[in-house]
Amino acid sequence: MVKLGAQKKNQVMEFVLNVLTVFLTIFAVIDMPGNVPLVIRLRKENGEIETAKSTIVATIIMVSILFIGDILFKLLGLEVFHFALAGSMLLLYFGVRMVLGIESEGSSDPMPPSIFPIAFPIIAGPGTLSTIISLNQDFSTVVILVGIVLNSIAIFVFLKSADFIQRKLGKVGLTIMERVFGIILIAIGMKILINAVVLSVNHALQMIG
């Protein structure tokens, strides 16, 4: 009995450590703290962000990729780097706008950014989705699912805290933060783009060979 109890305890500890590893990995890729300035900017340009909707849509995308990502990509004849190339372009676009302080043209009926670009590609972007596919090779589906749910809770909290951060930093602080994180967003976009280009070249060489 003692041996069985110790074995069960070890299994629980292993599960918790695996969930923590998955959670931190996905959290680092999503980088919600770094995305707060972009969220604030999008809200200023396009109106109120529906936090719950953004979180739910992003979660659905991540869970869907967990279960059907490989199958979907194969059916469409896509590779992960195809997805990454498209997502990197969007990240570069938003990063450049943040650094240069480019405002969107006014619209009488602005589209709320809750789904695009917040849910995708900011939260459930190419980096996040390819990470989930990669984690699927090393961790059980249950572990990754729990990690995704925990990240969804963190996403909701950060989206809700955007108002608080905006009030605390003020206009000058927000502008500085926006420029800094715009550069970081460009760097992330470039990293994803370069990795995707390298993978696409290797894929092309393998097909030729």
List the helices and strands and how they pair.
Blueprint (H helix, E strand, L loop, with lengths): L1 H29 L1 H15 L4 H26 L3 H21 L13 H10 L2 H10 L5 H20 L1 H47 L1
Share of residues in helices: over 70%
Uncertain segments are none
Computed structural class: mainly alpha
Task: Identify the overall geometry.
Answer: globular
Count of DSSP E strands? 0
Summarize the helix and strand pattern as letters: HHHHHHHH
Biggest sheet statistics = none
- Ends distance: 58 Å
What is the number of helices?
8
The domain tally reads 1
Q: Strand portion, in percent?
A: under 5%
Average pLDDT, all residues: 83
- Give me the Rg, rounded: 19 Å
Give an overview in words:
The protein is mostly helical. It has one domain (2-102, 112-208). It is built from eight helices and no strands. The chain has helices spanning 2-30, 32-46, 51-76, 80-100, 114-123, 126-135, 141-160, 162-208. Helix 4 crosses helix 8. The protein is globular and about 60 Å long. 30% of the residues are buried.
